[in-house]
Amino acid sequence: MTTLTRFAATRSACLAIALGGLAAIPASAAEVAAVLGYAAPLTLSTPASGIVTQVAVHPGQSVRRGEVLIRLDDRAMRARVKGIEAETRKLGLTRDEARREYQRARTLYEKTVISAHDLKLAEIAAASAEADLTIAQSRLTEARVDLAHATVRAPIDGRITRVMVATGETVQNALRATPMLELADPRQWVARARLSPAQISTLRLDQPLVIRASGVHYTGTLVSLEPSASAPHAPIDSEVVVRFAPNPTAKLLPGGAALIDIPGDGRRE
Predict the structure, then answer these.
(1) Which residues, if any, are the signal sequence (predicted)?
(2) What does the alpha-carbon distance between residue 189 and residue 242 come to, in Å, rounded to a whole number?
(3) Region 163-183: what's the mean pLDDT?
(4) Phi/psi at 216 (nearest 5 deg)?
(5) How crowded is the C-beta side of 42, counted as CA atoms within 13 Å?
(6) Sequence-distant (≥ 6) Cβ neighbours of residue 119 within 8 angstroms
(7) Which residues contact 190 (CB under 8 A, 6 or more apart)?
(8) Does residue 153 register a pLDDT over 60?
């Protein structure tokens, strides 16, 4: 066999091996259209009622944990706190004096100067003063909590997605809290897609899936697989929700387009 013949044979063998390897690779996943959104926006409100005096944020704004978002008129609440603080100080002095009176009564009783009845009265007066102070302290704590509720603060670092109240608006939260704004964690997103029964046949919860958004690929987790509304007598489609964490610098928008790689050919049957 000549050198040229041996080279041709070797080349044919290598090509056959390469083609055999390609045939062993499974078919690539099909891409289905999806819609982006924040994973779990928080709807914020407050148990306090009153007039909105400040809306410090707007949709799309990034906020830090503890940052003021909305303020209600808190003048009456502050006045109540000051009044109860003054009452608490007064009752504290009364309690201290009642304690001293009780100690003096015990000394006099031991010297048989006063009767057991008088000692008991002093003891009751001291206990009553202690109880009055405790009640006032509880009222003060409640008033301070109510005052704190007049200011809505960000519970997490996030981004404002909606503001549902305006300055000057009155909110009544005595029976049911009024939604005031929505705050989302920009580190957690979801892609939602509607799939046919054939498309979801190979899917399972917690399955990793690849998402392509703004030209970048992310690996997410299938967190929801629920039937969605369909036309009468039509196969019941399902909505799939894939949670993923994009790059901090990714320019994603709620409602934006994305693609989800579905295992198999992805055909709607």
Answers:
(1) 1-29
(2) 8
(3) 95
(4) -115, 140
(5) 17
(6) 105, 106, 108, 109
(7) 36, 37, 38, 39, 220, 223, 241, 242, 243, 244
(8) yes
**Residue 85, SS3 per DSSP:** helix
Q: Distance between CA atoms of 241 and 220, rounded to whole angstroms?
A: 10
Maximum separation of any 2 CA atoms in the chain, in Å: 135
What single DSSP character describes residue 267? Answer: -
When the candidates are 3.90.25.10, 2.30.120.10, 3.50.50.60, 2.40.50.100, the CATH number that belongs to 42-70+152-184 is 2.40.50.100
Spell out the residues 6+ positions from residue 54 whose beta carbon is closer than 8 angstroms to its own: 68, 70, 71, 167
* Chain centroid to CA 213: 24
The tokens of 137 are what? 């302290």
Order of all β-strands in the sheet with 50-55: 151-153, 68-72, 50-55, 170-171
Digit-coded pLDDT (tens) for 87-127: 999 999 999 999 999 999 999 999 999 999 999 999 999 99
Entry pTM? 0.73
Out of 3.10.20, 3.90.220, 1.10.260, 1.10.287, the CATH code matching 75-150 is: 1.10.287
Give yes or no for a contact between 203 and 148, defined as CB atoms under 8 angstroms apart: no
Tell me what the pLDDT averaged over the chain comes to. 86
Q: What is the pLDDT of residues 228-267, one digit of tens each?
A: 655 555 556 788 999 999 987 888 999 999 999 988 654 5
